[in-house]
Design a protein that fits this description.
Largest sheet: 3 strands, mixed
Order of helices and strands: EEEEHEHEE
Shape: globular
Structural class: alpha+beta
Number of domains: 1
Strand order of the largest sheet: 3-4-5
Number of strands: 7
Distance between the termini: 36 Å
């Protein structure tokens, strides 16, 4: 537990983390240890260099996790994962999109290269629950 308070104030207990980069948290469990990486990927409109740098850093962070840990990557990866049959070893059949965007392809390649699966595509959800963000402009939405 982390205590966060200023001098002379009553201590406030809880957890407070300010995230400015990708974050790795390791949790020791009774049967397994868990390494969780929370990441925020560049959006689709960013340069390929920026995206490559992000995914190189994410690979390095993943590879720095102990080999036998259960590894989870969470966060906003700004990826649209499609239903391409060629990727079924990495993705499930429950993706919302028909085709992956460029960020989705990068995420699929990362997952495939590290023997991971993209969990959000494995289980059925109503389409309304697959929307992650909606613009204030009612004519456009990102799903």
């Amino acid at each position: 537990m982390i205590c966060d308070s200023q001098e002379g104030e009553t201590p406030h207990y809880g957890l407070s983390i300010q995230i400015s980069q990708d974050v790795l948290v390791r949790i020791r469990g009774k049967f397994f240890n868990y390494s969780t990486i929370n990441a925020h990927a560049p959006t689709e409109d960013k340069s390929d260099i920026e995206k490559d740098d992000f995914y190189d850093g994410l690979r390095n962070l993943y590879d720095a996790c102990p080999k036998h840990d259960v590894k989870l990557i969470t966060g906003d990866l700004n990826a649209e994962i499609g239903k391409e049959a060629i990727h079924y070893s990495t993705i499930g059949k429950e993706a919302y999109h028909q085709e992956s965007n460029e960020n989705g392809k990068r995420l699929i390649h990362l997952a495939a290269s590290r023997n991971m699966v993209i969990g959000t595509t494995l289980f059925p959800h109503k389409d309304i629950h697959k929307i992650t963000w909606r613009t204030p402009d009612v004519h456009h939405s990102v799903k």
